Amino acid sequence: MPEPLTGWQLKLLGPPQVVTADGQVIRCERKVAALLSYLALEGPTPRATLVRLLWPETPVSASRNNLVHHLRRLKKACGADLVVPGELAALDPALQVDVRTLLEGGGTRLDWTVLLDGVELDGCPDLMEWLEAQREEVGTLLVDAGRTEMGRLEARGAFAEAAALAQTLLDLDPVAEEVWRALMRLQYLNGDRPAALQTYHRCRNVLERELGVEPEAATKQLARDIDQGALGTPLTTIRPGRIPLAALRPPTLVGRDEAWARMEEAWAGGQGIMLIGEAGSGKTRLALDFLHSRTTHQLLFFQARHGDDQVPYATHARNYRGTLAAYPDLELPAWVRSELARMLPELGDAPPPMTAEADKRRFYDAKVEVIRLIAERGPVIVATDDVQFMDDASVEAGAYVGSRFWGDARVNLRTLFCLRPGELSATAQALLQAMYDAGALVPIHLTPLDPPAIERLLADLDVPQARAYAHDLARVTGGHPQALLETLRHLFETDAFQRPGQPLEAGGGVTAVIGRRLERLTPFALQAARAAAVLHADFTPEMVAQMLGVPLMELALAWEELEDAQIMSDERFSHDLVLATVLAGIPSPVLGVLHRAAAQLLASQGGPAARVARHWQEGGNLGRAAPWFLKAGEAAEATLHVEQARAHYRDARLAFETSGDARGALQARQAEAALNVGVSE
């Protein structure tokens, strides 16, 4: 008598598979999966019924042979009989079946998706109809179970977990408006008000696209309550030694009433907005809160990053790629796709390198067309953060795109920018001044927070004796928002708020405060942060793991530590000041090693030649840097950015000469000379 299948599992939710008692996984062929699913849900079934469902057009004798053949193959693959022998087919009673567990009320896991996911039963119409009905029933149960679990998580204050579950529910049913409301509420309660407002915008877009309707009144009211901070107190509980999430992104905006009023005035006048402030002055937070309050507009949020200035169109490549990902159904004309492929190679073959200004204008017109197609769907805001990091090519292209829409009454397009003072290139500064002079853009300078604003912030974070601490913090931080937040994180982490009556001191400025937080990291987490800082822009945990030569799952633990310490936020540093502090603290020998590792990684991934060259240069290997500078010059020349090409060719020549490569140096000089000839002509 065969041994019972104790510990064996039949997984029918998701891709069908059998898991043996020792963990071996056996994939199921589609008809075998359908057979096992039918027996699991309908119970013991005559073989005659099964052959009629599985092979409806085949003679009975051949059908029965087919069934025997499939069962034998299943037994051979598994090494056991899953189906009990006999005229009445049935599953082994010891076999654990996930879908039966769910139907019996014992399952709440939402990583289960579709019954027999990926299985289509062509040629079996009755069985396919049965499967579709079962899928619908299972889907309803999964959603109900998920909502119940989401409520339990919210009740115990696990807002982040509940929000993740809400997002999974929306993946199953994207138009479930009550789940959208739950996600908005959970994000707000978890201390992330901007994310909650962004979720409202996503909800509105999905409902418009899928159903052609606006959100319900309850959803609109919830968005207003979140925007005004009227929903109640977000999660700010102070746990000893742990930084509350709200200290990363305080739930309400404070001390920016005057700037907000000027932004409203510019908006009413149809002008663009330029927020100007030092690093950490709160430009991005103010911009996002203002943008999310414009509930009638679509938002295209562009970001420049440190290092973009080395590569022509680096900023636009990143942000147009993100824009197309956000609008996957955008139908681009063939000529637009072809032109955009100059900076987005995944779109197909690009035209030949540019040789005339007309080529550049056509490329820029393709970018105009993308914005125009999006604007056809409704009013749109194009916002750009950290303008000072933009490469000049993207600045020039952005100005061209904007000029094509200014004054066009048919297109409701607004612009907002964030900028650090004194850090623009000459090209960008000239364009900016021209926009100021034309009245197209209004500069708004951000000032430090005063003690009353700091007191309101501390009250939002549930800091005890907020009024008493406000003046101390104003003195220590100068009212600089990022310095204030970094100091608060330090005080939370050192339990200073648990020792009332002691003066608050966190001297040394924001860099020193961040440095002390870095000192508390484990060595591996600190090394991961250092590798990411050397990569600077567009890094991922996968890239950092490759750079350090460690398994991704091992790095994931370090990444979680960095997020808990609020060094990282998703796949970015929580602030540029944090990145700069990490980078400044890397010992020189370690820095060289990391730069060389970054160069090898980016080269293997087809990264921009200019970045590969700089990493080899910073890593002390000019011989390896030289040919990459040459490639970078060719790339810049191909986009008609002559000055940048000249600089790269000059760097290539110097690197070749320093490393003793006379032939390479000659090649670089010839490229530079040919460039000069081309310009003079």
From TrEMBL:
It comes from the Bacteria. Residues 97-227 form the Bacterial transcriptional activator domain. The keyword rRNA-binding does not apply. Keywords: Plasmid. Gene3D superfamilies: P-loop containing nucleotide triphosphate hydrolases (3.40.50.300), Tetratricopeptide repeat domain (1.25.40.10). The keyword Oxidoreductase does not apply. GO terms for biological process: regulation of DNA-templated transcription. One of its GO terms (molecular function) is DNA binding. This is BTAD domain-containing putative transcriptional regulator. It comes from Deinococcus sonorensis KR-87.
